[in-house]
Structure formats: structure tokens, C-alpha cells
Amino acid sequence: MIPGVSIYELLTVTSLLFFIGVYGFVTRKNLISILISVELILNAAVINFVVINKYLYPDMLQGAVFGIFIIAVAAAETALAVAIIINLYRQISSVEVEEIETMKH
Amino acid sequence: MEKIIFYILAAIMVIFAIASVSSRKMLRSVVYLLFVLCGVAGIYFLIDYNFLAAIQLTIYAGGIIVLIIFSVLLVHHIEMQLELAKPSRQLLTALACLLGLGLFLTTIYLHPFEVVENTNTISTAEIGTLLLSYTDGGFILPFEVISVLLLAAMVGAIVIAKGKKLSTNNQSTS
Fold it and tell me: Which CATH class is domain B1-95?
């Protein structure tokens, strides 16, 4: 644990990061910006796992292992999202959310 | 000392996260995200989880950011400005987020955490052993599932990124 820093302060920072990500997710109108916001949300979640593991159950490793799994899933998700965005751009020359109606069907 | 470093890191993370979701230039917002991810790695270093910090730096800061920058460069003109949401909608979202944040923080501060004072650190060997152990509490099955998921995602990404061309080729040959 970090000397002098309580778990409450760490959890406050991660909650802030999480809600900044949610704000970006709702207000942005561009697929890549939405992807960036999702990365923020996932990072906040990983820090929560790791911090709770370190502060409350220091003898266990489960939090760190789940952190690794979340990072792997985030990597896979980013690769797929980038592929979809590039394919979309090739077909309709735009990555704005409002113009992507061809994916609905 | 650690306390000061933690506050600096937290300030960097929050400020650059806000900059990253509100900047109107695409590439700048990606670079701000890079600073946030480096701050997260700093937090991992502070709580002595060196392996996770290394993973964070290599996969996020090294891999994902490069991927997003490539897609930005392929898709956008650099000088293009993003359009913003309506001010009323921004205000409403900000209010909803503040409400959720207040709810989170009250719940967190009301909960009595039983913090265990410790200076334990995790060695990479321990994580590796746990990931590959098949006894109770081992993670061999999720580990295999995640590796298959990664493989499937990579193959799927390649197929999606060049899908149109593949199908037209098939039609012309058949």
C-alpha cells in the first residue's frame, strides 16, 4: 500500500476517471472518441481491482490476475473496433455516429 | 514523499482525462489519453505491482495508443475539428455524471473498509504460477479462454478490415 494514502482517496480518483469516461461516452459523436472514453472506463475498473486487492486482501493475487484479463479483453476490443471503424470509413467515408445507419440492418 | 507523488499523479490523470474527453482535436485527445495511461502505470508502481505496471506500459501505452493513432491518421484530416454535442445535452450529461459520482462517493465513504497494513509485493513468478495452476483457485481455464479470445479477435479484425475486397474477389472468381 502507498504510505499515507488511504483507500478512500484512491477510490475517489478512480470514480472520477470512470465518470469522466461516461461523460465522454455520452457526449462525443465520433466513433474514435467513444473508443477513447471506453478505454478510460476500463482503466478505472482495473485500478479498482488492483487497489482493493492490495489494500484489503494483500495475500491474494486474484485482483492482479483479473486486471491482466481485463487488459487483454480491452486489447482485443480495441483491435476489433479499429478494424470496424476503418471498414466503415472505407464504405461511407465517415466515422460520425449519426451517419452510421447501415449497421442497423 | 509517496503521498506527494500520488497527488501529482492523480491530478495529472484527472486533468488529462477531462482534456481528453473535451478536446476538439482528435490527435490531441489521443495523446492526452496516453498521459492518463502513464499515470495509471505510475499508480501501479506506487503500490508495488511492477508486473502490472509493465503490462500497462507495453500494452496500453505501447500498443493500443499506437493502434488508435493509426486509425485517427487513416480516417481524419489532422486539422479537422470535431463537432460538439448540444450545450443542453452536455449540461444534462454532466449533471447526471455528477449525480452518479456523488452516489459512488457517498457509498465509498460510508463503507468501513478493513484495510490490512502490509508491504507485500507480487512477484511475476507468483502470477505465472497462479495463471497456469489447475488446482482449486487456479486460472488455467480463463487463461486458455482469453488466449482463444485474443486469437479470434485478431483473425476477426483482419477479416473485417479487408472484408469487402475479399468478397468481391470471391464473386469474380466463382
Answer: mainly alpha
Burial of B5 (0-12, 13-18, 19+ CB in 10 A): middle
Name the band, by pLDDT with cuts 50, 70 and 90, for residue B40: very high
How high is the pLDDT of residue B17?
Answer: 93
Each domain of chain B, given as residue ranges in start order, spans: 1-95, 122-174
B100 touches chain A (CB under 8 A): yes
**ipTM of model over 0.85:** yes
Residues of A in contact with B101 (CB under 8 A): 15-16, 19
C-alpha cell at B31: 495523446
**CA-derived radius of gyration, chain A:** 17
Task: List all residues of chain B from 121 to 140 with a beta carbon under 8 Å from chain A.
Answer: 122, 126-127, 130-131, 137, 139
State CA A64 to chain mean position distance.
17
Of A15, A50, A55, the CB nearest to B115: A55
| Whole-number Å distance between alpha carbons of B93 and B23 | 17
CATH for A7-104 is 1.10.287.3510
Question: Hey, where are the domains in chain A?
Answer: 7-104
